[in-house]
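Handout, tutorial session.
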Amino acid sequence: MSKALDGKLALVTGASRGIGAATAIALAKAGAHVVLTARTAKDLESVEDTIFQSGGSATIAPLDLAQSDSIARLATAVGERWQALDILVLNAGTLGSLAAVPAIQPKEFAEVLTLNVSSQAAMLAAFDAMLRRSKGARVIGVTSSVARKPRAYWGAYGASKAAFETLIGAYGDETAEISAIRTAILDPGATRTKMRARAYPGEDPHSVKAPEVVAERIVALATNGFAPGHFERVG
């Protein structure tokens, strides 16, 4: 039986666990071939095995997006094998330390901005040509509520996500009239992830939704499409 995303190529960053892993598995179940990227090869292999066991297909690409040449090498490798990229899920990110604004450490803040902002811009630049060759490319950026509603002690992370949203939105505005690329920003809300456990160490993880709930919504966006500049929050 045909599936909604048969013949589509997807790339998911931060695919070794949490929302990224669940999204990769869900996209593969819908028929897409999924390129999985994250720093830890062992965890990526586990996600890949899950995809294979359910009859899907995937390729792992272990790398650190914060390294200057890693994204260019990834784009070259993907471009040598496939002509177009249909779905790009920008999920990778880092929390950094939660601290009052006067206590933000410049070195750590720079590291947060590198992964959450600079690396995302590099991903869009590196895969722009492949996205433009798709008949209906979808770029979905995973954000946080603190990007739009500042919260005490979340200044560094919130600022990085606000910048990330601006990049995604600007890219979508630039490409909407001259290509089939559409961009969306998705706020997953409270979700059972390692990052949330770090931010809320006393919280019962079963009191918040599983990553698979968010993954289902991302697959729906990738399958059904959306208007330019789409934003939504998963309740």
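The second record follows below. Compare its token runs with those of the first.
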Amino acid sequence: MKILHTADWHLGKIVNSVHMTDEQDYILNELIAVIRNEQPDVIIIAGDLYDRAVPPKEAVELLNRVLTTLIVDLKIPVLAIAGNHDSPDRLEFGTQLFRSQQLYIKSKLDIDLESIVIQDEHGPVHFHLIPYVEPAEVRGLFEDDSIHSHHTAMTAIINKIKTKYDMNERHIFIGHAFIAGGMESESEERLSMIGGSPYVDASLFQEFSYVALGHLHQAQRIKSDVIRYSGSILKYTFSEATHKKSITMVDMKNDGECDLTYIPLKARHDMQVVEGYFDDLINQPLENNEDYLHISLLDNGQIIDPMNKLRKIYPNILRLERTSLTSSKSLIDLQKIRQQQTKSHTELFAQFYEEIKGEPISDTSMRHVEKVVDQLITDERGE
């Protein structure tokens, strides 16, 4: 069986006030061209189809157009799950009707954990579609008060799969999670850490033939070639400037062994970080001058209106800074900001409380805060 693995489309994404829908339209046409050429038996989209719970209509129209091409024109089964940016309620609309066209979208976890079975000449392949869920959701669904982290939630899910199915058959896990050891970038929204860690240990997935992951935007393996993030289809922040975007093609044999091929995706406009002197950038323009650019000027002296002058040559500058004017204080401030970004919502609130009140927040108050934050996250995702 030949399986195409992609994820993190983030349709409707806005980068530095620039709507990326045209870029996404272009790259998805490139993806469709790859699909026509490779002719996979199954397509996996491992979450974050949209960039936010209420996507713009242009993003909805683009997704509708792409999925229609895949399932109606090309007649290839598509298996997709909700990511942490998606609204489960909105993605769930029409899912039962879509199944008749072999479009399988799993937006909410259910206790049955029924797999999608697709046959090839060697027999059945079980696809386990596990959408992004908060630990509290799994705790309530499984009625297990010991579930307080993403790892314990995933452990409960996988243990249920193992008790229900013969793991000697071929099984593919489709998930949207942060596997410990993965390399993250600035564009991933940090997963909730209410009551525990956001990380899931890769050892849980050892009995699956292939693990198709979404969430991290850099294409990468996690401790095994068959536990893999396909990465996002486009670069969405300058921290991804060095990434090589691709999709993963999985050729699964009759015994579950997988041969992997990585097919690059070339965007219409790349994203680059460029350092240089103002005069050099003006007089010796970059070859790809229409790429999205973060330019760091090395000049020490005064430059009058550098942005407008540079934009006459580089129309897609998204960020401009003067490297020489970056003080040690700003570097320290930047380090503090990055430290804050690694903290959970509840940790940030506890820090704020202590700064204002001059004393740590009590355990009882902290439990109330966790419940409020948990509800806010649920409401934000439209559940």
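Points raised in discussion: The chain has a mean pLDDT of 90.
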